[in-house]
Amino acid sequence: MEPEVRRVQVSGGNLHVRIDGAGEPVLLVHGIFASGFCWRRVIPLLAAKYRVYTVDLLGFGESDMPPDADYSQSAHARRLHELIDKLGLQGVRLVGHSMGGEISVHMVDQNAAPFRQWALVSADGFRPAFLPWQRALLSGAWMNRLVPKLFSERGFQRSIKRIAVEAGAFAPDVAEGYLKPYRRAEFPRAVRQLVKHREGGIDPEKVRSLPRLPTLLLWGDQDRIVPVRIGEQYRELLPHAEWELLPQCGHMPMEEFPETTAVRLLAFFADA
């Protein structure tokens, strides 16, 4: 069955949302410089039991890329709450990866009422974003020329060698799925805005004081992007959370071990 695709107006622009399956809602939130495409291998497995909403954040994927939007994590969180409201969702199972995990923290902090459970998958947090000079440099107009080189197939192949334990976990033909949205003319300016607005590390006390929800922390034990020590800090601050390390897995469990990732999420969802 073909997924349903919607464009939903929120503050700042339209979000692209893919909807699969039937049942209670699951919301998948991708990380930085990715899109809903990164979840494609786990979506069918989750959609066998749940209605899965896979969103492209503003500035990413097929969503709008306005040049003057606020691309901070807290602003993304507010827009996703608008999305939840417009779709009329309740009892949401929230899953956030990398920066999407940071955004999920802001979402639960802003309003935990829509959520039944949440899972943080290799979630970033607690680390400074940019030093002032780095922010000034990377948000400059010269980035308009650099971004197309960074988001090339050669750049992608270099990146996955760092992201994954086994680069072969990414099939050769997936580069196009990741890179296609970033050939859009408006993307370089959106990147500059992202750098300008990206917030620093999450305050640990914010995490400690979050409303108590059933929580899963899922990490690759070889993650070189968001190392396990970040997950262990979440674990210390959220002592009620379930914790699982995936052996020989890097930063993207849903690409490297999609079936294992889906099975673990489904087992967690079934406990609620």
Compact summary:
By secondary structure, the chain is an alpha/beta fold. It contains twelve helices and eight strands. It has helices spanning 43-47, 73-87, 99-110, 132-138, 143-150, 153-163, 175-179, 187-197, 204-208, 228-237, 253-256, 258-270, and strands spanning 4-10, 13-20, 25-29, 51-56, 92-97, 115-121, 215-220, 242-246.
Walk across the major sheet and give the strand order: 1-2-4-3-5-6-7-8
CATH architecture: 3-Layer(aba) Sandwich
Give the biggest beta sheet: 8 strands, mixed
Number of helices: 12
Q: Mean of the pLDDT scores?
A: 92
Amino-to-carboxy terminus distance: 28 Å
Which structural class should the secondary elements be placed in? alpha/beta
Radius of gyration: 17 Å
Strand fraction band? 15-25%
**Domains, number:** 1
How would you describe what is shown here?
The chain is α/β, with parallel strands linked by helices. The chain has one domain: Rossmann fold (3-Layer(aba) Sandwich). Helix content is 39%, strand content 18%. It contains 12 helices and 8 strands. The protein has an 8-stranded mixed β-sheet, with helices on both faces. Helix 3 links the parallel strand 5 and strand 6. Helix 2 packs across helix 3 and helix 5 packs across helix 8. The longest helix is centred in the N-terminal third of the chain and has 15 residues.
